[in-house]
Hints:
Mean pLDDT: 80
Strand content: 15-25%
Number of domains: 2
Low-confidence stretches: 1-6, 141-149
Order of helices and strands: HHHHHHEEEEEHEEEEEH
Shape: rod-shaped
Strand order of the largest sheet: 5-4-3-7-6
Number of strands: 10
Amino acid sequence: MIHPFLENTSRIIQYVLLWIVYALLQTFVLQGLIALPLWMVLVDGVIHAAVFGVIGILLWSVVKYGNFEALTLYQRLVNSMAMALLSIALWLSVGYGIFYLIFGTELSILFVPLLPIRGLIGLFIYILIIQRFRLSMLQKGQPDETSDTPMLVEEIQQKKELQVEMLERIAVKSGTKIHVVMVPEILYLQADGDYVQIFTAQGKYLKEQTMKYFEEHLPDNQFVRVHRSVIVNVEMISRIELYEKQNQLLTLKNGQQIKTSPGGYKALRMVLNL
């Protein structure tokens, strides 16, 4: 296993070498297009390589923390185009500015006709940088076999704990009486303010609890939240039919009918393997 410090140092060296190679390549390409001594063209290449190197670090932060996966394809496209234009404009302006400060107007103006070529070069470099960063993030996101084993064990343990916590019965206090409702006997549950109504074939019971609690503690292969305010026992459903354009109507075995939301019906279909 590589020590994190050595790994980071290696990446920094590789990153610096990358921009040194770029500076040399740019010098080789531009030396025949501009009437300047080779050493001046090399200095210009080093300046622009250094500037784009810094911009690349900023782009890495944007790619890493930008959460682009949460955006639509159109939004990602617009953001990528905006970042490309901003990066290239910043690269050219800062690079030319530094060269101007060192060599003055007379020599700097010789690079102006090369702006279109440099713009294309900058776009190409930008695409390579973004793709390389995204590839690096994907590789980091892939779990290592050795580090994955403890995570799997922990996940299995958590699932076991959740299974232990699944409700088998619900105690409901009504006045001086306590009713014990067995989970398989529940038809459905419905939100009622700060309480939840529990409906069974024998009657209904009011429990001071939240819908989220029951959603998490009732068996998810048997109870589905088909609506924001309703959780249904799928074993008590006798019929499903279209009610409106995007809603379904459930008919339970006792004749009770319940409307589902689009999201609730999708969850129900997954449980029923429809």
